[in-house]
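Try it yourself: sequence plus pyridoxal-5'-phosphate, in.
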Amino acid sequence: MNLLDVYSSYNVNPVSGKGCYLELKDGTQVLDLYGGHGVISIGHNHAVFANNLKHQIDALIFYSNAVENPLQKKLADHLGRLSTCERYDLFLCNSGAEANENALKLASFTTGKSKVIAFENSFHGRTSAAVASTDIDKIVSPLNSQHKVEFIALEDKVALENCLSKGDVCAVIIEGIQGVGGLDEASTGFFQFLEIKCKEYGALLILDEVQSGYGRTGKFFAHQHHDISPDIITIAKGMGNGFPIAGVIVDKEIPVQKGMLGTTFGGNHLACTAGLSVLNVLESEQLMDNVSKISSYLKAKLEAIEEVKKVKGKGLMLGLEFEFEVVELRNQLLYDFNVFTGGSSHPNLLRILPPLTIKELEIDQFIHALKDALITMNHA
Ligand code: PLP
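Structure, out:
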């Protein structure tokens, strides 16, 4: 059997990982500034994380939600405290798309309405309503496009209110900072307008923090830079540092009945152990402080590089904009300088999503590699 040919991948084969580094099969050490799409939060194979998983494997790997699992409550308590979201409840699932799918479903159950407002360049996942709310035509099948979704430009308050005022909108879904779309983000004024207008017209505000959450921007959630309280927040990626786990964080005011949401795998013992380990390390190693410190250090270094025209994003969710397409630069960085970086739908943007544990020395390695790669390209 062959694998379905749906991915374009790089010609490297990582066999082990430690902190910000991946070791390839031939022994090469690669500095990982991408963390497999922003998943690696506390570093590859963090000792606490790996040991906790090993112990849990020896005890019990999985049971479904048909039994009591105190690890789930422990995870919810720790998450509530560290994110300061104690007035929300948690539903555990397995991936970002599943979290958004359930968030949208819950908004529709709650309001009795079915239209969604999403934003231009958004990405919310590849399943039913999540992909219909994603602004990339080629990944939306005719089946998905049956959902009623209106796309609005970020900051367009008039279009937003026009759409909401028709009274048929169940949810507005927005990323804390756009990831796949190219690191654009709404202003504080727009986020606050959104919160007020959703309340006024009876739609729920869903903050997709799948990529921007879990400390990546220096605060637990990116929307916390804007002083708003969404109705629902979705989380995944950094939550499990590579172990599949995701969540829907729901305001206690939203009425939820038994059976409305569910999953076989979500919240299993091993997943909860991964989630708890991430929260413990985020807190004990003060990683959100590290994000802010390293982000300033990196931005200062980037300012001195002429070819970097703009730096978008916050914390360690950054987009470096060039005047040229970055495909060749990414190849150079990986194959000639052993640095893995990301792209986005914006062809001129290099996306940086390193582990939140990254140190100044590793940033220096990246800056040297970037300068050398740019010199090599200029002389080619
Ligand atoms: N939402 C955002 C903002 C994302 O960046 C992604 C994935 O990149 C998703 C949702 C979908 O997550 P998953 O691939 O875990 O389904």
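One thing you can check immediately is this: Residues 37, 95-97, 100, 123-125, 175, 179-180, 208, 210-211, 236 surround pyridoxal-5'-phosphate (CB under 6 Å).
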